[in-house]
Here is the input.
Amino acid sequence: MQVFRINKEPYHTDPLSTVGSHRYGGRWNPKGIGVLYTSRTPELALLETLVHLPPLSLGELPQLWLSTLELPPDSVFWINPAQLPPYWRSGSLASTQTILTEWLLSPFSLAVAVPSVIMPESYNLLLHPQHPTYAAVKVLRQRPLPLDSRLR
Here is the structure.
């Protein structure tokens, strides 16, 4: 399965790095536990990136890079949104960061597919660097991702 990730320059040089999520945490992981945030489609990866960019003009933003990654077969555990607590979309980070505690502490699969808060019909995939098959994740390609001026 292919998944997609967008990094800001200069962080694109290591698209499998979890340093940022380890340092700052995210919706699904607390500080101190790094995971790799990816998306099922490049469009969702772009949407997820855009909502987290500062309110700058396109010319002021750093260069973005799109990475296409290949996951080993049968490495994704899919979460049904109906099985998530009601606060998963609106809760604070402190509350949502505990939803996947079991997987974060003992990764039973390489990836967990979670619905996007922005577009719940679409999925983001979290990859756990402590899972034995993380080393088998392949970077298939990377390319600069220019942003169309109509996006701002």
Summary: The chain has one domain: 2-142. The beta strands are 2-8, 36-39, 64-70, 76-78, 111-115, 123-127, 138-144. The chain is about 15% helix and 25% strand. The first strand starts at residue 2 and ends at 8.
